[in-house]
Amino acid sequence: MDEVSVVHNPDKSRYELLVDGELHGLIDYVDRRGTFILTHTEVDPHLRNKGLGERLVHDTLADLRANDRAFVPTCPFIVAYVRRHRDEGSTAPST
After folding, report:
1. Which of 6, 16, 42, 51 has the smallest count of CB within 10 Å of its CB?
2. 40 is in which domain, residue-wise?
3. Is residue 93 part of a domain?
4. Against a cut of 0.70, is the pTM above it?
């Protein structure tokens, strides 16, 4: 596992976890008038417990915040991440 990246794929309404250029995880969302409802997180079972789920969530939330997008996590994995990392900021965009 050499290169890990998280990319936004708006055509599929998701953020994708790429490992060596191949899709190995995702976060699905629904865009409700500019608020991203984060509904589901998935990482390939053979790559679990390697921190990739956390990386996927971290990079997704960082991108949403950088683009001043509000988000609401409904996926239990993302909810737990947000609770553990309150220091990373709120779900509300800056004004």
Report:
1. 51
2. 4-88
3. no
4. yes
Domain count, the chain: 1
Q: How far apart are CA 1 and CA 12, in angstroms?
A: 25
CATH classification at residue 18: 3.40.630.30
Q: What pLDDT, in 10s, does the model give residues 45-92? A: 999 899 999 999 999 999 999 999 999 999 999 999 999 988 765 555
Specify the 3-state DSSP secondary structure of 60.
helix
Burial 68-88 (b: 16+ CB within 10 A, else e): ebbbebebebbeebbeeeeee
Based on DSSP, count helices (H) and strands (E) in the chain, helices before strands: 2, 5
- Residue range 6-26, pLDDT digits in tens: 999 999 999 999 999 999 999
Domain assignment of residue 95, yes or no: no
Distance CA 11, CA 31 (A): 12
